[in-house]
Amino acid sequence: MTKNEIADVLTQIATLLELKGENPFKVRAYQTGARALEAIEETELARLVASDELQSVKGIGEALAQKIAELHQTGRLGFFDKLQASVEPGLVELLEIPGLGPKKIRALHEKLGIADIAALTAACNAGKVAELEGFGAKTQEKLLAGIRNREAYGKRHLWWDALEIAEPIVAGLRGLAPVLRAEAAGSLRRGLETVGDLDFIVAARDVAPVVRWFTGLRGVKEVTAQGETKASVRFESGLQADLRIVPEEQFAFALHHFTGSKDHNVQMRQRALARGLSLSEWGLVPAAGEGTAKAKAEAGQSLPAIRTEAELFAALGLAFIPPELREGLGEIEAAEKGPLPRLVELGDVRGAFHNHTTASDGRNTLAEMAAAAESRGWAYLGIADHSKSSFQANGLSEERLLKQVAEIRALNASGRFTTHLFAGTECDILADGSLDFDASVLGQLDYVVASVHNALTQDEATMTQRVIRAIEHPHTTMLGHATGRLLLRREPSKIDLAKVIDAAIANRVIIELNASPWRLDLDWRHWRKAAERGLLCAINPDAHETDGLGHVRTGVAIARKGGLTAEQVLTTWPLAKVRSYLDARRPKD
To answer: Of 246, 262, 291, at which residue does a domain stop?
Structure first.
């Protein structure tokens, strides 16, 4: 196991022990051990385990050292397995309800016998939770709202999670001997932030082996439908997937149709009808009973063989429309005028600015984050650990921040990494719109990401003015996760984004596209018009560990959906241009 995987186990142990009402000091020992482990570099952990020196690390005692070594060497821990078996699964599931932590869950269990979400719902509806000390009517209502949201959100899945399931399936389908072509379609292909189900379109010479392989996939909980050319399955995560097998000559049409969206498809069919044609998932043919006889005759004579979506669009007098733009929001009119601008691609990304280390709530050290960025071929990486008011995230004091700045400068000077490190901060926007650090501290940084982390329920006027005040601060370089939303978990704060975008453009402040799969904030629906007016985007993964840097892929999908080109995204610029831009943005004394 890696250090972060081991740390996850230790954190889960702490949670389970707290649910069981174990000694708080014992719980804290596992939490402390997890944090201590994250602060060690991977190679150092291997050395400490091999030399039996784990106890030399502050926060790791003898018993904990033995458990860490067992996990590192075997990937299993008998103590953890027994502990999991001793806690009712429903209690753990209750942690998914916002506002419920281990202590409150234990109180509900001990006083009301609540052991799962169904029991909690019944108790709330009966008013029993409101009567408990430490809860009250407001808490009860929030719990009911959280349960309702969970049920509604449970019908959709994060794009990133759906992609992790879909990609191996597409690769597997393409590896089957009878398969000629295979693609994922639907909202996943369009890059929507959440996905209802998966669609796979396959052209194959022989159907039965493909259906058999698909329905036998690992992780399939239920086969919900199985026919000659179609199959549907449901995975253990609840995500449903549909497989459609078509002749090769129909593949482009089926792929286009099942990629959607509905509005896009309706507009495409209307465009076809205006030309005497009928467009469907099966093909493009002269329309029956539509248009003039002359138009239909001419259409039938001029129809070429269509193997690709590009050829399908061309047959209707359109430039190719990338899947991400197919929402019926003017993309057809734009494609009628000629080739669309080249959208940003993953290969364009050269770095990112919103990233955390173990100095605050990250799980990898400064050097590990730099090494991970270098392995991706990035030219630069910005470090923006939390500021002091984010105490829940171990936010940095002025002294700790300036010490980190010195470490970053020294690491750059050492030449240890080819990736250049920028020194920044994710600075809290306080409730009144002021920033968490004084200008004297912010002036020593390369950049500042200003973000809201508390008082998220302020009214729209207050929140809007709060964020605009932060944008107007001369040291603010970019605005982080503008609405504070957490997809499928928390609604965005009430804020007038039109005014916020106006302020950002007026003050030359970047708004990030937070690429965390749970955020994807600013929403794609705002980007095209804002970028045309001069708003600059930064695709930032908000990475809290090395693997989190990979979330830029999600950000690129959303940036493409927002119609952004590479030139409109700061994090695609070369190092020299970025340095010049940041230097010019910094206030001059």
So the answer is: 246
ω into 188 cis (within 30 of 0): no
Residue 495 sits in the same domain as residue 358: yes
**Torsion of Cα atoms, 47 then 52 then 53 then 54, to 10°:** 90
Tell me the DSSP string of 390-405.
-GGGTPBPHHHHHHHH
Non-local CB neighbours of 124 within 8 Å, separated by 6+ positions: 130, 140, 143, 144, 147
CATH code: domain of residue 214: 3.30.460.10
Domain around 431: 346-585
Q: Is 245 helix (H, G, I), strand (E, B) or coil?
A: strand
255: tokens are: 């792929």
CA gap 575, 148 in Å, rounded? 47
Are the C-beta atoms of 308 and 332 separated by less than 8 Å? no
Nearest to 517 by CA among 238, 196, 149, 161: 161
Instruction: Tell whether 330 and 378 lie within a shared domain.
Output: no
Cα angle for residues 24, 28, 33 (degrees, 5° grid)? 155
User: HSE on the CB side for 504, CA within 13 Å?
Assistant: 29
Final residue of a structural domain among 301, 336, 371? 336
Cβ count within 10 A of residue 485 = 21
pTM summary value: 0.85
Rg of the chain over CA atoms, in angstroms? 27
| Number of other residues whose CB lies within 10 A of the CB of residue 205 | 12
Is 404 contained in some domain? yes
Cβ contact 386:357 at 8 Å: no
Q: Is residue 549 part of a domain?
A: yes
Asked if residue 356 lies in contact with residue 385, where contact means CB atoms within 8 angstroms, the answer is yes
Q: What is the pLDDT of residues 16-71, one digit of tens each?
A: 999 998 889 999 999 999 988 888 888 889 999 999 999 999 999 999 999 999 99
Give the CATH number for residue 259: 3.30.210.10
- Residues 146 and 114 placed together within one structural domain of the fold: yes
Nearest CA to 489 out of 194, 265, 133, 269 is that of 194
Cβ atoms of 534 and 501 closer than 8 Å = no
For 503-527, how does the pLDDT look when each residue is reduced to its tens digit (9 = 90+)? 999 999 999 999 999 999 999 999 9
Cβ atoms 272, 284 nearer than 8 A: yes
Residue 232 scores a pLDDT above 60: yes
